[in-house]
Specification:
The complex is a heterodimer of chains A (about 200) and B (about 240). Chain A has a single domain, classed as Aromatic compound dioxygenase (Protocatechuate 3,4-Dioxygenase, subunit A, Sandwich), CATH 2.60.130.10. Helix content of chain A is about 5%, strand content about 25%. Chain A contains one helix and 13 strands; from the N terminus they run H-E-E-E-E-E-E-E-E-E-E-E-E-E. Helix content of chain B is about 5%, strand content about 25%. Chain B has a single domain, classed as Sandwich (Protocatechuate 3,4-Dioxygenase, subunit A). By secondary structure, chain B is mainly beta. Strand 13 of chain A pairs parallel with strand 2 of chain B.
Chain lengths: ~200, ~240
């Protein structure tokens, strides 16, 4: 026997289930007014600095069918690559947004500004990116990924440079549609499966 | 010692992403391995929430749907606990969001068509922030069990869904709390996606009579551990990293 390390293991995840919206996005579940103000309705406020963009796409299961009950969360830096909490960060950018798949269009939509490159403590730069976290019925632990843009440096970005096989990098790069609109589908499984992160 | 990177996630503490007994997980689980890397500022930072964003009844599911005008039907309970990191340190101002079925096992969601009726006085959602020591509490009714389409005759044990924000986006966690003594726990394929028995046990909240109030409510205690940040005792970095 040995001394026991105190049991502070992380609590086990469980699926968010099909009714996640009533807790996190009650309006989407048909329950507006549950809370006076819902959280994460937009990552930016009026006057946020930066280039406005819109990212839309589908969340697809292993048979290629769109998942309609998914909830997504995004987290990003401001246009200069600073996160909320940094004293110099843009006060008009919270950086956090929550959005669901629209059952009519079968797509999600995120309206935000394009983030700047984010430095690592050692001075290397991460290419501009938006972190995504995806939960739904059947997802037992939330899936993390990142949205990058077409100008991303695949060779020096600390995440993209580690993706193998290299053709999977394209699953993390949003496709420009013009006018600041980008398409980014998330494939949970199968051909073109999105790279999911464990960081 | 200074705050460092997030402690790598021990995936054996968590459910198997794909489990044929929970059928929906089969087509919704990645087949490629996850790309494991050290956390960066993207994962180490996260949104902040404050009391100004919450309403006075947000932590009272018995009364919040009606704005305090009427009370929900069901066994009155307080659910409380401690939110801490993997070092055992309480996490202040953690956002705790909860949602659940009513006492008959029905969710107030446009997609739930179960036979049990809606309670006109129950919404089923609440939220609160932990105090400076990491404690939270909310008032609710004990949810009912309900059947769901999966295998021949699967029922969910009574449970409350929990969503947690600590200090970092990389700490994000959604889980479910179950109730001590519920015989359906042993039959639940969703709980059984967690393969480590001791981790299953930690999702089951014990009855906590010390926090119950006579002639008013019972209490259950549910502590939650989120990922911690590495403490650097010594800096021994290889050249160039």
């Amino acid at each position: 026997m040995v001394q026991k390390l105190t049991n502070n293991r992380e609590t086990a995840s469980q699926t968010a289930g099909p009714y996640v919206h009533i807790g996190m996005m009650p309006s989407h579940a048909g329950n507006p007014g549950t809370f006076a103000a819902e959280l994460g309705t937009s990552p930016i406020q009026e006057g946020a600095a930066g280039t406005p963009i819109e990212v839309t796409g589908q969340v697809l299961d292993g048979s290629g069918n769109p998942i309609l009950d998914a909830v997504l969360e995004s987290w990003q830096a401001d246009a200069e690559g600073r996160y909320t909490g940094d004293d110099s960060a843009d006060p008009k950018i919270t950086g956090f947004c929550r959005f669901a798949v629209d059952p009519e269009t079968k797509r999600y939509r995120l309206e935000t500004i394009k983030p700047g490159p984010v430095p690592l403590p050692d001075g290397r730069l991460q290419s501009p990116h938006i972190a995504l976290w995806i939960v739904a019925r059947g997802i037992n632990i939330g899936l993390s990924t990142r949205v990058y843009f077409e100008d991303a440096d695949h060779e020096s970005d600390p995440v993209l440079s580690r993706i193998d096989p290299r053709d999977r990098i394209q699953t993390l790069v949003a496709k420009p549609q013009g006018d600041g609109r980008y398409a980014f589908d998330i494939r949970l499984q199968g051909p073109g499966e999105t790279v999911f992160l464990d960081m | 010692m200074k705050d460092g990177r997030l402690i790598p996630r021990d995936r054996s503490a968590h459910p198997a992403p794909r489990d044929p007994d929970y059928k929906t997980s089969v087509l919704r689980s990645p087949t490629f391995p996850l790309l494991t890397l050290e956390s960066t500022p993207t994962e180490e930072t996260g949104p902040r929430f404050g009391h100004a964003e919450l309403g006075p009844l947000d932590d009272d599911l018995i009364r919040n749907w009606t704005g305090g005008k009427a009370k929900a039907i069901g066994e009155r309970i307080v659910v409380h606990g401690h939110v801490r990191d993997e070092h055992g340190r309480g996490i202040p101002d953690a956002l705790v969001e909860v949602w659940q079925a009513n006492a008959g096992g029905r969710y107030r969601h446009k997609k739930d068509g179960y036979l049990a009726p809606l309670d006109p006085d129950f919404g089923g959602a609440g939220r609160c922030l932990t105090d400076e020591a990491g404690h939270y509490a909310f008032m609710t009714i004990k949810p009912g069990a309900y059947p769901w389409p999966n295998r021949g005759n699967d029922w969910r044990p009574a449970h409350i869904h929990f969503s947690l924000f600590g200090r970092s986006f990389g700490q994000r966690l959604i889980t479910q709390m179950y109730f001590e003594g519920d015989p359906l726990i042993a039959h639940c394929p969703i709980l059984a996606t967690v393969k480590d028995r001791s981790q299953v046990d930690r999702l089951v909240a014990p009855l906590d009579m010390k926090h119950a109030r006579p002639l008013d409510y019972l209490a259950y205690r549910f502590d939650i551990v989120l990922r911690g940040r590495r403490q650097s005792h010594f800096e021994n970095r290889p050249e160039g990293l």
